Amino acid sequence: FPLYWFSMPAIMKGWMDRVLVQGFAHEFPNCYDSGLLKNKLALFSFTTGGSKEMYAKGGISGDIRYLLWPMQHGIMHFCGVKVLAPHICFAPEYVSEEKRKEMLIAWAQRLKTLWKEEPINCSPEWYFK
């Protein structure tokens, strides 16, 4: 998905609001590691309008991990989902065609070994280090 206004597009958030409902995806106190969707995997793959430097620690847009906290931790991990490291294509609109092709090749390569990846540690330390 494209990163819109430091978050997911409204249509995607609306889908999550309608599908990840209490009783199906979460049921307090069954949340986080004991959430109803435990043992499921999630991976956020998205593009940005800004460069990697803009989303680095100290960058004008702040560390990309800060933006991922509410989406990966607050939604997916809350429901018990194990989260894989995100796949981010920074500013594809502003790079050469060759760089865009490299982005697609990297994504295709990652998909070949995706099931072997270990989930991230969905803790505040991972996001705010």
TrEMBL record:
Residues 1-111 form the Flavodoxin-like fold domain. The keyword ATP-binding does not apply. The keyword Oxidoreductase applies. Gene3D superfamilies: 3.40.50.360. One of its GO terms (cellular component) is cytosol. Transmembrane segments: none annotated. InterPro entries: Flavodoxin_fold, Flavoprotein-like_sf, NAD(P)H_dehydrogenase_qn. Keywords: Oxidoreductase. GO terms for molecular function: NAD(P)H dehydrogenase (quinone) activity. Belongs to the NAD(P)H dehydrogenase (quinone) family. This is NQO2 dehydrogenase. It comes from Burhinus bistriatus.
